[in-house]
Amino acid sequence: MLTSRQSLNDLLAELPSRDWDLLRPHLRVIELNFGPALIEAGLPVKQVIFPHGGIVATMEILSRGESIETGMIGRGGVVGSGAAFYDVPSPSAAVVRFPGPASAIEAGQFRSLMGISAALRDVVMRDLWTRSVKAEQTAACNAAHSAEQRLCRRLLHSRTLSGSDTMLLSQDLMAQMLGVKRNTISLIAHALQQKGVIRYSRGRMAIIDVDALASRSCECQLADGSIRPLASPRLSLAPRAVPECSIQRSPS
Ligand SMILES: [Zn+2]
Fold first, then answer.
1. Could you give the count of Cα atoms lying within 13 Å of 126 in the half-sphere of its Cβ?
2. What spacing in Å lies between the alpha carbon of 194 and ligand 1's midpoint?
3. pTM assigned to the model
4. Distance 216 CA to ligand 1 centre (A)
5. How many angstroms is it from 154 CA to the middle of ligand 1?
6. Dihedral, CA atoms, 27, 121, 93, 138, nearest 10 degrees?
7. Which structural domains are found in the chain, ordered by start?
8. How many whole angstroms separate alpha carbon 40 and alpha carbon 196?
9. Ligand 1 center to 21 CA (angstroms)
């Protein structure tokens, strides 16, 4: 059973002790690995996931079968919370972009706890708001900035979320990230490698010169990770009486 949340996920770390004690018995630690999608577009969400590390990408699936990355979620966010809370099919898919551990809770249990924990609702809603703002910013980025600028921004953001300069990232995946043709990625990656910014071989990409990568990125890099509202002023996060929990808890 989980005993501490401080080193797990930023949202879990923000919960007051009372609310953490409500949530903790229902969380189980899982490993996020490459493979089948964590969430399928158009299907109900089975579990809500709080990454401890690694990266989960949200994907928009188009009618022609193409998939385009619309966002990245790391230890500062939660995966599947919106669809689970409203008990609706997920509009987008979620796949592991960078492996790592996570805490997961069954979707129905998560929905029940959202009904009795104002602090959990607050951290989850702030995360949804943050992702909404980032999606708006990315829409502007896609329209205004070049593919090279956007790729450099995504690589910097991936580095921040994963905490690693090296990642498994095929050119097909990079094309998905930006919604561009693979040939476009091939040309950009080759140019960046020639200039010593990255090193790329057989699907493994290493960032060699972070400053050069930042200088080639668009201005949107500055907002990545900095968009985050503070706790609702109407919500005191100090320990307080929490309504009786009628949910069946799993044995601890
Ligand atoms: Zn941009």
1. 21
2. 23
3. 0.83
4. 11
5. 9
6. -130
7. 10-140 (2.60.120.10), 145-222 (1.10.10.10)
8. 38
9. 40
